[in-house]
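Our preliminary data section would be incomplete without showing what the modeling component actually yields. Below, a chain of 220 amino acids is followed by its predicted structure, encoded as tokens that our downstream tools consume directly.
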Amino acid sequence: MTIHRPGLPEDLPPGEALWGRWALLAAIGATTAEEGRASGYRTGLWIDAEGLHHDDSGCTWWTMSRMGEGRFVLYGEDESSGVKWHATPIDMLAGGPDWLPYAELRDLIEGYELGCVYWYEDGAWARAPYPGDLRDDGLDCGMSDFVDREQVRGALSDHLHAPDGGGADAAGFLADAEAHRLRPELLLGRLRPARHDDAPLDLPAVARALDLAGITVSAR
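Predicted structure:
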């Protein structure tokens, strides 16, 4: 799936699917040591009470939060965004529903820390209108890792070892995560014992992160 520059609401997959993909990859990297660390001191992918996070410790940070049944808000910044520097000020919250976390978003806007805001309701994404000469809002650089489903499946495959006698593959686990019906015991049994950095996998932390994300059968 292609993400336009600037992004279009239809570039994003359904909110539930985007949440499931992001949560699945974030949970696999969860550790007990990082669980209590404040978001401002973490990097990579993770989930906490606020929602899902992505921070490369450089030019990109993003948050996706649940705002009730069938409602999500996605916001963040990549250095490629020209929204906050546009000659004609752009109101990133124009047309937003009343359930957005306005206090937090306005605080970020006032601090020149926000590049764009998207919201999801009634099965569709939306954002504020942009002027025709805006070149980019950063959505591509922020969300491309999760919008490309095959890329997510490939990333998940790297964390799985081959099952004995068959069993669910990466595509199956991904589909279950997107539908929020993942069976954690099956996934935990297939994960490689070490992460890409050779640190041992923290299975209890992974299980807690999956449950916190609400994408498992046990979390319902």
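The first helix runs from residue 15 to 28. The mean pLDDT is 92. Preliminary results of this kind motivate Aim 1 of the renewal.
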